[in-house]
Design goal:
Layout lengths: L5 H9 L10 H9 L3 E6 L6 E8 L5 E6 L12 H5 L1 H13 L2 E7 L16 E2 L8 E6 L4 H6 L3 H12 L3 E4 L3 H15 L6 H11 L5 E8 L2 E11 L2 E9 L8 H15 L4 E3 L8 H7 L8 H8 L4 E4 L4 E4 L2 H9 L10
Parallel strand pairs: 3-4, 10-11
Antiparallel strand pairs: 1-2, 2-3, 4-13, 5-13, 6-11, 6-12, 7-8, 8-9, 9-10
Helix pairs in contact: 2-8, 6-9
Length: 341
């Protein structure tokens, strides 16, 4: 079956409200502005599909990437590779081979049950992940007191402290202020920050349909932090957050997260994905977070306080079409990392 149109994909995604944010047409439109191509592939029966992102490689060849897909009826990790997705992989293979794709990378929208992962036939474990594999999922069921009750005592205290000190959190469309806060945070914590036009495009694509909300936190009129949250179906995600170097003792970041959770709960979401903690088991995380600050360790201390459940995604899975060029790609990973998708 040939690739379908963006309009057909949007109709398919509408029929699957639990599909991941990164498989929506809006996400594909976002990435297409910043160096990726998009394609939408379905099996012949039309019940399984995938948004595929394509990135140009040297000599005219391509890298293909399926973030948090494919999309279809929910399945368990043991059923998905061999029994349910085979008909779709056949279509994806045909598409990739016709376009000189070096390899396909899949980061599925599933959670592993154990560290012993089943790899789908025809795939191999990929050497590089693009999205964080491990996260914390905050349970948004019950009333607000129930959600607060599942948090660490210190986190509840910091939320109330921010309120007591007069921190105000409100929805905003002030992307300039948010980007400035992102730059401050990126410089302080040594991570990359997108350009302003990237965040503007994200907001313009997702906010009009009610799937994105930008929150700013201020104290005495001064912006102290910002957070961009997303919601779709029963799930919400925290993807982008920033904080000022000023008045951090007022704990604006805690109140920002709480208000974002309340917004998501009001939309009917039952989980809030804090999107990325170090890829280590819970015992290791709890043993080491007090004395490590490198990479995602720096945010784990903060995120753990919201009482989320530890979850780990399988993958990345690589399906290789051109072994020689795949070997070259692996050799050059440290020099040419793939941009997060």
């Amino acid at each position: 079956m040939p690739p379908i149109s963006p309009q057909e994909w949007d109709a398919f995604i509408t029929r699957h409200p639990e599909a991941h944010l990164l498989q929506t047409g809006a996400w594909g439109k976002l990435k297409s502005v910043f160096g990726w191509q998009t394609a939408y592939i379905m099996n012949n029966s039309g019940d399984l599909g995938a948004q595929v992102l394509l990135r140009r490689m040297p000599l005219g060849m391509l890298l293909a990437y399926i973030p948090k897909g494919p999309v279809g009826d929910p399945v368990s990790i043991s059923q998905a590779p061999a029994r349910t997705w085979t008909s779709l992989w056949e279509e994806v293979d045909r598409f990739c081979r016709e376009r000189w794709v070096i390899f396909l990378k899949v980061e599925p929208d599933l959670w592993t049950i154990s560290e012993d992962e089943e790899i789908p036939p025809g795939f191999r474990p990929g050497p590089q992940q693009i999205q964080p594999r491990r996260t914390l999922l905050v349970d948004l069921t019950g009333d607000e007191s129930a959600i607060l009750g599942r948090m660490k005592q210190k986190t509840r205290y910091n939320i109330r402290l921010a309120q007591k000190k007069g921190v105000k959190v409100f929805p905003s469309n002030d992307l300039d202020t948010f980007h400035h806060l992102m730059q401050v945070t990126g410089q302080r914590d040594a991570f990359g920050v997108h350009r302003l036009d990237y965040y503007r495009r994200v907001y313009d694509l997702f906010h009009p349909q009610g799937e994105c909300r930008l929150f700013l936190a201020t104290l005495d009129g001064v912006a102290l932090g910002g957070l961009m949250a997303f919601a779709r179906g029963s799930r919400a995600w925290y993807l982008y957050g920033a904080s000022s170097d000023e008045r951090r003792a007022a704990m604006p970041a805690y109140l920002l997260q709480w208000e974002a959770m309340c917004w998501a709960r009001g939309r009917g979401c039952t989980s809030y994905d804090l999107w990325g903690v170090p890829d280590a088991d819970e015992q290791t995380l709890e043993a080491q977070f007090t004395h490590r600050a490198d990479g995602l360790w720096g945010v784990y201390r903060f995120k753990r306080g919201f009482g989320g459940q530890h979850r780990r995604a399988p993958g990345p899975w690589d399906r290789v079409y051109r072994p020689f060029w795949y070997a070259i790609y692996r050799l050059g990973l440290s020099l040419r990392p793939v941009e997060a998708g």
